[in-house]
Protein 1
Amino acid sequence: MTVAPSGLATQPIGEGAPVAEGVWQLKLPVPFPLRFVSVYLVRGDGGWTLVDAGYDYPPARAAWEAGAGAAGCDLAWDVDRIVVTHFHPDHIGAARWLGEKTGAPVCMMEREIPSARKLWGSSDTGPFMEYLVRQGMDRDMAEEAAAVMRYVLPLPEEMVPLRPGGKLPLRESAARIVHAPGHADNQIVLHDEARGILFAADHLLLGITPNIGLWPESEPHPLARYLESLEGMRRLGVDLVLPGHGPVFHDLDGRIRELVSHHEERLAVMRREISDRPKTPYEVSRIVFRGTLTEHQRCFALAETLAHLDHLVLEGRAQRVQKEEYVAYRTA
């Protein structure tokens, strides 16, 4: 079975479109291969709730201005709150600008706030570079990749903490805040139970799979936590899934089955690649993720490879081998 995209939200990048009563999707451009991130504007009795802020650069700011205007939302006066689902720069990047423009509070999961400040508050790329080298990446390449991935990102001076299980009022209903780890340790999604809508952030995507990576700052076993979270979302009674990237879709349980199957296949592929001899995570990533990749993509491919190798070790199907300068993995 292949989950089909919805006929909703087919507008071009840079434009907005209604996806439900009082809900607009705005496709904000990003300067990397994903091409756009979807943010959502939800009209409520006291004002609008904005779900995610996008990447902060001039084309995205211009799209915010035009898209909000098309939806009937005056950014200077009508915004009640801004909810950031997780700390990645295409979701939190414009939060400071948007907060200052709207005067609205920026909200994020309570544990994600200190994590974001720690990561984006330092320009020291050394620790991340050494992490890449330990996984088998050439030092010169690791230095270039670390400079792309780690930089200072201005964040809002104040952020309001959100707690899983809490409720956010949205129009005539409310959205339940759901902790959805895997893609980011403290990512949240919003479940509007009354209307059967899931604001899915990067937890459930269609057309591509969310990157589930093991990073230096990650909590242990991200793939195990992601799969557990997916299982907890089965049978939510959701009729409309609004993701952070890619098409809108309707079949939540069908997409969960596809994602679980994808990771089972990926685990089998990676285990096969380390069956003949121990390999570094970077070596495995270059076999599994073929083609010409940017430094940014190489890092995400490596992090995803690490998450799967870590999961194989967790299941007793692989072993981690510690060398003097790097780590390697082999089948158990």
Protein 2
Amino acid sequence: MTGSRLLGTGSALPERIVTNDELAAQIDTSDEWIVERTGIRQRHIAGDGETTATLATDAARKALDDAGLTPADIGLIVVATATPDNTFPATATKVQNALGCNGGIAFDVAAVCSGFLYAIATADSLLKTGMATRALVIGAETFSRILDWEDRTTCVLFGDGAGAVVLEAQGEGTQQASDAPGILASRLHADGAQHDLLYVDGGPSSTQTVGHLRMKGREVFRHAVVNLSDVLHEVIEDAGISAGDIDWIVPHQANKRILDATAKKLGIAPEKVVVTVDRHANTSAASVPLALDVARRDGRIKPGDLVMLEAMGGGFTWGASLLRV
């Protein structure tokens, strides 16, 4: 196989919406403070009966519908999440069972906010080897369940949700050129030395607790702008294109200021950047596929467009993928 192409997208959000004003009634913050520093206006918060697996399953069903496929057509499921339903088994196996396509490959990827980039590169590689013909790649999170709701510097930033894509392997007869549909190039990185800048202070082996998210926001911002611009340049070079050839950037929706700074560093017009952080906040591994689905369904991203996906998360991990839709 020469690569994989995008067949469909889907997303799912919890019913409950929490506005900045609602948060301001509970902690020392304000709508103006949050919007000015992050661009976030609201977030969705999972309720009773809503879990990472249920959101992932809903997004997967919508992606399958968009692709005109059934669960029986899927031989590989990769779920990117930092908030699995259980320590084990993998959330992907719960999604597989809910869809009714047991017997194929199903596993989770843990790379936090970069998880979807790691998952899509992994699925693309497996499809190239012939391990499966079609894959569901899902980013799904319930970050509200690892937040310290008394820490105004972090609890205002995150929300819950899921996004999914369907990929299909392309045969040897398909020319994988920059003008052909498919994933053209991907790059992934990690730097474990930055662990203490963004992490959760719990875990089965260390504290036997779930723990809460901890972040040094200013340092994360600085690393994000540099790392993301660097990896985007790498993918652009690998694909043999220029930044001006890119129709859309679909970035991790962490902070509007990071999105603006990264686009400026690349010389890409802000109107080419898909922004959903105002509606969904930071949904970690779900944010890239969520934004991709929104932009495809509202007509911004059209067949033939050249789209760059990028993200950075705790670890640090970061990566980017370029695809022709």
Protein 3
Amino acid sequence: MKRVLIPYLVAVFMVGALLGVAHLAFADTASTAVTVSNSAPSVSAVTTNAGSAITLTENTSTSVTLTGTITDANGCSDVITSGSVTIALYRSGVTSTSACTADSNVCYRTTTYSVQASDTCAGGTDTTANVSTTLSLWYYAEATDASSTYPTNTWITTITAADAAAASGNAAATGVELNSLYALNVTGSISYGSLTANTTTGASNQTATITNTGNYKTDTEFTGTDMTSGGNTIAATNEKYGLSDVTYASLSFSLSTSATNRDTNIIKTTTSTTPSTQATYWGISVPNGQVAAAYTGTNTFTSVYSAN
């Protein structure tokens, strides 16, 4: 005898469906999209020389450090890796922005910088980087202190950051003073050779050339010691000097053992390759009866402020 099972299975399925024991489920998807717009970088915490006045070094260059913080919401690598950083240090009277023309008297610019090791730009979600650069300022960079030609100016640092999309931001530091530097260098030997007693050097002057190695025009203080040999002396006043190459009798000034200011008025140079100089001419009179010997002394040249 055959059994019929189909109606029983259909009945079980129907009961199960009614009781919620078994059902069929289907999934679908919805696409998503967002556009992240570019954010311009910003610059903050800009400093010049750690906020201190700049003091130059005569006849050479002086290192000045400039620092700042760059922030970009799209990540600091958008500037550090894909963009650019321009740092400028300039006298405020030249321009009000970093767009000055490079000139070692008034404007120093660079795109060379370093990300400070203490806060490197790590990429990814890192949004800030501290940057710094060191510029070499020449000794003739223009002063801005009270005694200078530009007492109402200061030296200002501006940092400009640009990202890969050329969006940019900038900020400037509070200005600092650049101090006046009065300095000189003297070349040439004042060696009068061999003279007999009761004679002068006549028209055979010795030349000592003064070079202005500071950043302001300079006058010169002259002082000297008596020339001596053992217990014998030729007074400093027997030496004469001037700014023109004339005979001993016509030289303008007698040397003094006290500092005496002379109006040499040596202007400030504007380039390291063309120094500003003034020649001085020297002669001596050997007194009658002077003991035969080799005499030596010291003449000192000091740079001082020139008012004219």
Protein 4
Amino acid sequence: MKGYLAKLRPAERRIVVGVIVGLFALINGIFVFPHFSDWADEGARLEKARKKLADYKAEVAKKPELEKKVKKLEGAGQAVPPEDQMFYFRDAIIAQGGQSHVNIVNQNRPSTSTNLFFVEQSMQIRVLSDETNLVNFLHQIGAGPSGMRARGLSIAPDQPRMNLSADVTLVASYQKGTPKPASRSGTGGMTTAKGP
């Protein structure tokens, strides 16, 4: 390059050097100057990632405390029985009626309804009993581990006016099991069905 510039006259040298400097400035303007802010952007991204990591570590550090709270809350409430327990719904009502000396004179078929998380089973029964045994029956139904409760209650004296006749709607909620693969039979997704 020096040999080439030495052969040129001074004015030509200035023009060649000016062209080279201009090209250098043009290439820098196109490829280098637009990326000057990239370093600051990368620094901001790095700082954001460090903050996110610190937040995640802080949340992970809270895990033992949160697990204690979850166990405490699980112990405070009544656990919802799994879905397979719903087949004992009618048997549990009849057994509790016998234990509480309540005569179940009529019972409808249990009906089942579902939502995203729970299966709810309900059954209407008519009982004949004195008031003490009826109250005991309702209390024992609600106090048991099955999660049953009375949703509706209609009481009237029986014909000889010796006992009470009551129409009771009993309900129990169960945890919904994992969904089964959909069959291709085309039956559709019904949410309410009659139980056994």
